[in-house]
Specification:
single chain; about 300 residues; alpha/beta; 8-stranded mixed β-sheet
Length: about 300
């Protein structure tokens, strides 16, 4: 990360910050001077239960390192709890400058065996959880003319076996973020997304289940949660100059992920046979164009 990226005087809310990637984000942002709201329900992997311990432990770790943080224990899937999480930043720090939506859960279930309630639970925490926190923070951002939102999705959007519920929920977050990016740019609010790679308790249970210990150790070395945090810190910073973007993060690499449009196929007679004949050209993305609105330079930060 470039020198000079600091968050002194800024307040940042990180959801799902009690463990894994969210914990890494909270610790990293605090090390750069941010006042951090460590928001975590403290639930089990299946989303059940709650505990104040994970958030409290991260706050204690930040304070032991000389940083500033407070804990919030609400459920982001509950509108009132989500508002209280954002309200905690405003009440304690007098402001909110950035929101990092990281809270979530995962499971692997074949589509034919998927209970509808599992789809609802995924949408509740990923989509509604992001929407509720953003709705609570948005008026504060508009009032100050400045805000940064970083939403978490996944590469499972594009390929995730036995994860249609998870991919669907993350797809909703992608659509939400792109729409908000278009609406927010004129009032100083930038909205971007990350698709992190990391070995966490969730990914170990759902993605890497059954892997040998030596393989997991290798993955852990190159996919530690904290390897995602520098990208998140940039996107949450006043110097961020893009909006509506999605970046794959984690490990020693990062990449831009985008939706593109292939070259146009002209249909002279509008017959399905023409589609079949032109399919190779449609699938060739060599001359594809990006589906995007313009990317503005970041607004001048609020004082």
């Amino acid at each position: 990360m470039a020198d000079g990226i600091r968050f002194d005087g800024r307040a940042v809310v990180v959801t799902g910050a009690g463990r894994g990637i969210g914990r890494a984000h909270a610790l990293y942002l605090a090390s750069l001077g941010a006042q951090v709201v460590v928001a975590d329900l403290g639930s089990e992997l299946d989303g059940s239960g709650s505990s104040t311990a994970p958030a409290d432990e991260v706050v204690a770790e930040i304070e032991a390192r000389g940083g500033t943080a407070i804990a919030a224990y609400g459920n982001v899937a509950d509108e009132a709890d989500a508002a209280a999480i954002v309200g905690a930043a405003v009440e304690r720090f007098g402001r909110i400058d950035a929101l990092v939506n990281n809270a979530g859960r995962n499971s692997r279930i074949p589509f034919a065996e998927m209970p509808l309630d599992e789809y609802r639970r995924m949408l509740d925490v990923h989509f509604w959880g992001a929407l509720f926190t953003i709705r609570a923070a948005w008026p504060h951002f508009v009032e100050t003319g400045y805000g940064r939102i970083v939403n978490t999705v996944s590469e499972a959007l594009f390929a995730g076996e036995n994860m249609t519920h998870y991919a669907s929920a993350k797809g909703a977050v992608l659509g939400l973020s792109r729409g908000l990016a278009a609406e927010g740019e004129d009032v100083g609010i930038l909205v971007n997304l990350v698709a992190p790679r990391a070995l966490t308790r969730s990914s170990e249970a759902n993605v890497f289940s059954g892997y040998p210990t030596d393989v997991l150790d290798k993955i852990r070395r190159v996919s530690a949660p904290e390897m995602n945090s520098p990208v998140v810190a940039y996107l949450a910073h006043e110097s961020c100059a893009v909006t509506g973007e999605l970046f794959q993060t984690g490990g020693p690499t990062m990449a831009r992920m985008a939706v593109v449009r292939s070259q146009t196929l002209g249909l002279a007679e509008f017959r399905p046979e023409e589609v079949a004949e032109g399919l190779d050209g449609l699938l060739d993305l060599a001359d594809a164009t990006l589906i995007d609105h313009h990317l503005p330079a970041a607004k001048s930060p609020a004082s």
